[in-house]
Write a structure and sequence with these properties.
mainly alpha; about 0% strand; SERF1/2-like; SERF-like_N; 7035_t:CDS:1
Length: about 60
């Protein structure tokens, strides 16, 4: 049990370090805004994929 003191010192140091760090807390509006923008980006990607798929299908039909 020679390392017990070392562990305690490391814990104290870590607690002190964590207390100095400021955590960013997202409020509800920022989270919703980011979620909406992410959803819009995904909708645009899906639309592009559907358009590409339909043009690929048309090209295959024409050959």
């Amino acid at each position: 049990m020679a390392r017990g003191n070392q562990r305690e010192k490391a814990r104290e140091k870590n607690l002190k370090k964590q207390s100095k760090q400021t955590k960013k807390k997202e409020d509800g509006t920022a989270f919703k805004k980011r979620a909406e923008s992410d959803a819009e980006i995904m909708r645009q990607k899906q639309q592009k994929a559907l358009e590409k798929k339909s043009t690929d299908t048309v090209q295959v039909d024409n050959k």
